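Sequence design from tokenized structure. All designs in this work follow the same two-part layout: the structure record, then the generated sequence. An example of the structure record is given first.
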């Protein structure tokens, strides 16, 4: 189709087109020279008078608020002033991606590598806010789907394909005549959209689906395990209100698929919004309710102590993402592995330093312990001795004969001998304690502990090398999206169904998982498995150097464990030195106690050696 370089807006102003930015089934989008913030959409085929009237109505209804949240038509494009409408002018939407690139784990790791659950919650809140703005202007989105909602790296959202919206203008309704079955509410399933007046309540169903996708990793609320024998495609499950995560799911013979985030991960009030959205037609939550409850959820998040990329409801005792990633083998959020900047761990050097620290020798118990010189304590005065000694030599001779009968002196000497025996017992006990006490036990325990850490470090390295090969294969397979594989018999619709079951890349393809998905019998499942097998074979033919594919999940887990071990080993020598110092202080304290005993022993020995 030949495109004129110059067209005209509805005021007759010339519009010169630039480079083509993209093309779809309905039309192509071009740059507009001298209007860098706007683009032109030209339809491939002539449009009807009804569609022209709709575009004119939308241009007249333009407001700054609509332009801020949607690629809303601000002008029509004509082949000449007041001529035939060929297209429209709308705001340029740059650096945005379709929202399924955010809620699908495989796409998210490529396009939003820094996004965590808090990011997704805030994006859901922003989507709800955009819906509220559209509804407040009296319009209905109608064709809510994963392709016409865009999100940016700051969580802001924009709507595109606005010319398909249902527009109310001067009591006239311009219908939305398209829709995606997986986003269509139960009451509209299997119905032709032509001539149907959509309601904002219909949009509320699609909004709830988008919020569910964002919070639950792209899973569809109606893609669950059905216990019946007949097929249960998503469209039928929607029409029969078979919400797989509902508190009443058992009565509908439904259950959530394995390895999914459970409803306990969100607060009760948010769970109730989902129940109303998917189990009731007349009482679906309006956008403002989602804004309120998603804000509340985001304010109640905590960060996992083991993985900073994991945010979860603070009411929970454990991190649900850790368990989910362990059980499913899927990495949902990327986190920067902790690193030691400018500090390389030299294992041999660190261990040699630890081995260089040896326990101090216990040594023999000191034969002699210095103490101050002592003098015998004088005996207490005796009245008998004092009286007899007044008689002179005779009295002293007489006292020598009766001295054993002097009770005062005998009792004192007996007391001094008992004191000597007691102190000698203390001295002997001190010697025994010295020889029996294992002074270096804390040192040897720390040595054994460090030896255990060393062995854990060596085992971790072996384990890492072994798991690295497995993780590299998964990371390699994770690069291949099913939607780009062009597998015969698996088109866009079935690819979308697979995504709802958490199967996006070759790494997700497992025979049992695929067979559980509606529409995948042995033939299609076999084709998918064969595709994965061919990629595995291609990987194994790669040179070893080319297999070093980034494995952030594995690297993150091992880096955290390794650095904890290395931190302990780094401080090992210093801890051993500190223990030696503490032991030396304990010995010094004990020897001071021994010196005090020796002092008392010397005094007691001097006291019993005194002559009467």
């Amino acid at each position: 189709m030949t495109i004129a370089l110059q067209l005209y807006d509805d005021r007759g102003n010339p519009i010169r087109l630039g480079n083509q930015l993209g093309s779809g089934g309905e039309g192509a989008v071009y740059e507009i020279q001298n209007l860098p913030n706007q683009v032109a959409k030209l339809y491939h085929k002539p449009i009807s008078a009804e569609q022209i009237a709709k575009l004119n109505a939308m241009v007249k209804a333009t407001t700054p608020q609509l332009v801020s949240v949607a690629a809303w038509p601000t002008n029509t494009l004509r082949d000449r002033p007041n001529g035939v409408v060929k297209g429209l002018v709308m705001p340029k939407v740059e650096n945005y991606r379709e929202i399924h690139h955010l809620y699908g784990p495989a796409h998210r790791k490529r396009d939003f590598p820094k996004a965590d659950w808090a990011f997704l919650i805030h994006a859901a809140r922003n989507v709800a806010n955009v819906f509220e703005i559209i509804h407040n202007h009296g319009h209905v989105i109608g064709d809510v789907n994963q392709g016409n909602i865009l999100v940016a790296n700051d969580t802001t959202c924009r709507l595109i394909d606005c010319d398909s919206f249902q527009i109310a203008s001067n009591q006239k309704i311009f219908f939305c005549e398209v829709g995606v079955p997986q986003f269509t509410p139960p009451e509209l399933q299997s119905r032709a959209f032509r001539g149907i007046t959509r309601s904002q309540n219909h949009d509320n169903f699609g909004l709830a689906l988008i919020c569910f996708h964002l919070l639950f990793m792209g899973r569809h609320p109606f893609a669950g395990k059905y216990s019946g024998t007949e097929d249960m495609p998503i469209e039928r499950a929607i029409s029969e209100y078979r919400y797989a995560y509902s508190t009443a799911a058992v009565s509908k013979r439904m259950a959530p698929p394995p390895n999914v985030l459970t409803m306990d991960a969100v607060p009760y009030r948010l769970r109730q919004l989902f129940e109303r959205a998917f189990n009731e037609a007349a009482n679906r939550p309006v956008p403002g309710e989602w804004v309120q409850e998603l804000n509340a959820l985001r304010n109640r998040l905590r960060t996992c102590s083991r993985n900073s990329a994991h945010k979860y409801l603070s009411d929970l005792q454990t991190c649900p993402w850790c368990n989910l990633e362990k059980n499913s083998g899927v990495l949902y959020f990327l986190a920067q592995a902790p690193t030691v900047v400018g500090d390389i761990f030299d294992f041999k050097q660190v261990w040699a330093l630890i081995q260089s620290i040896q326990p101090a020798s216990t040594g023999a118990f000191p034969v002699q312990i210095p103490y101050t010189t002592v003098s015998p304590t004088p005996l207490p005065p005796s009245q008998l001795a004092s009286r007899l000694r007044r008689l002179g030599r005779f009295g002293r001779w007489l006292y020598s004969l009766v001295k054993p009968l002097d009770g005062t002196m005998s009792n004192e000497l007996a007391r001094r001998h008992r004191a000597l025996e007691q102190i000698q017992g203390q001295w002997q006990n001190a010697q025994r304690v010295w020889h029996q006490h294992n002074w270096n036990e804390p040192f040897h325990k720390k040595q054994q502990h460090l030896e255990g850490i060393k062995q854990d470090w060596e085992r971790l390295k072996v384990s890492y090398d072994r798991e690295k090969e497995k993780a590299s294969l998964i990371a390699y397979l994770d690069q291949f999206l099913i939607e780009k594989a062009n597998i015969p018999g698996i088109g866009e619709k079935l690819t979308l169904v697979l995504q709802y079951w958490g199967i996006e890349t070759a790494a997700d393809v497992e025979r049992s998982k695929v067979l559980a998905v509606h529409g995948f019998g042995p033939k299609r499942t076999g084709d998918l498995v064969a595709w994965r097998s061919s990629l595995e074979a291609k990987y194994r033919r790669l040179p070893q150097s080319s297999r070093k594919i980034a494995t952030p999940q594995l690297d993150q887990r091992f880096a955290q464990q390794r650095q904890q071990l290395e931190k302990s080993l780094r401080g090992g020598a210093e801890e051993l030195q500190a223990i030696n110092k503490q032991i030396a202080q304990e010995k010094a304290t004990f020897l001071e106690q021994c010196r005090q005993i020796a002092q008392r022993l010397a005094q007691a020995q001097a006291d019993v050696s005194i002559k009467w």
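The mean pLDDT is 88. We note this feature because it recurs in several other targets discussed in the main text.
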